[in-house]
Amino acid sequence: MNHPVIHQSFTIERCYPTSAERVFKAFSDPAKKRRWFAEGEGFVIDSYSLDFHVGGSERTRVRCGEGPSMTNDCVYLDLTLVPDRRVVFAYSMTIGGAPLSSSLSTIELLENGDGTLLRMTEHTAYLDGNDGSAARREGCLELLEALASELSNHG
Amino acid sequence: MNHPVIHQSFTIERCYPTSAERVFKAFSDPAKKRRWFAEGEGFVIDSYSLDFHVGGSERTRVRCGEGPSMTNDCVYLDLTLVPDRRVVFAYSMTIGGAPLSSSLSTIELLENGDGTLLRMTEHTAYLDGNDGSAARREGCLELLEALASELSNHG
To answer: How far is A5 from chain B (nearest CA, A)?
Structure first.
């Protein structure tokens, strides 16, 4: 089994009617991040931890119903060059113990009138020979929707 | 200072007249990797360490003459799905203490007659507003040349 790695990239944007400080806090605060990022409907969280600093890790272990365990291990690469406005990280996902993908992801927060434009750019190496980019993009759009709910519901 | 992150990707390939096992070993063995990766002409190595396993780090601290300190911090993301034929990692570089870039890099080793085709794919987020992709591609070509010398000179 030595199929080629499949490389795909996308950029998605979403506006939030709140300050960049509040959006950033939803990434940096472990309780907030867990709520919108890990606690998806139908998912059981086996473990979640967030150590939000350069070199720190975020580790997520979830299952969907009786499905296989899924892991997401993230390392934060840069948070300092534009403080509180950028999150640069790499993450790897496995499903049922098998490596699925490794990604470089960049979150940029930009002033947009009274609100904040979030721009997410992901470069992903799909490792198992399957191009999961359409599903990944959809999943990220759902996460940005979950972030919108977090910002609406939790002052 | 909130200039946009600049995203660039490239793929380069090089053939080596030796086995994939030997090429892989030049990535996994700390003494070999240090020799071709860190010990460039004119560079002073302040420190180098390699812990080659998934989640492990490679940390390189060098200076070029009287120039500023440069750091390269790498974390290995996947080494297991196609054993001894792939290296998937993320790395961040700083210069003079300032973040420069974060990258996702994939090394694939493919049989090529009696030799090995190395395919390197890099996705980089340039963080400081300067598009360093031409220089980065050139630097990676030089590294693949240094790897050729390593494979020729060190059995």
So the answer is: 8
CATH number at B117 reads 3.30.530.20
Q: How far is B27 from chain A (nearest CA, A)?
A: 18
Q: Is residue A32 part of a domain?
A: yes
Q: How many domains in chain B?
A: 1
Select from A81, A102, A123 the Cβ nearest to the Cβ of B77. Answer: A102
Domain-located, residue B41: no
What pLDDT does B1 receive? 57
Rounded to two decimals, the ipTM of the complex is: 0.92
Rounded average pLDDT over A77-85? 91
What is the distance between the terminal CA atoms of chain A, rounded to a whole angstrom?
A: 50
Are B101 and B125 spatial neighbours (Cβ–Cβ below 8 Å)? yes
Unique residue bearing structure tokens 């272990």:
A61
| Residue B2 confidence (pLDDT) above 80 | no
Tell whether the torsion through CA atoms of B69, B70, B75 and B80 is positive or negative: negative
Asked if A128 lies within 8 A of B81 by C-beta distance, the reply is: yes
Q: Is residue B63 part of a domain?
A: no
pLDDT, tens digit (0-9, with 9 covering 90-100), for A50-75: 999 999 999 999 998 889 999 999 99
Question: Can you read off the two tokens belonging to residue A95?
Answer: 């499903």
The domain containing residue A132 runs over which residues?
6-36+79-153
Q: Do A104 and B90 touch (CB under 8 A)?
A: yes
Residue A92, in any domain of the structure: yes
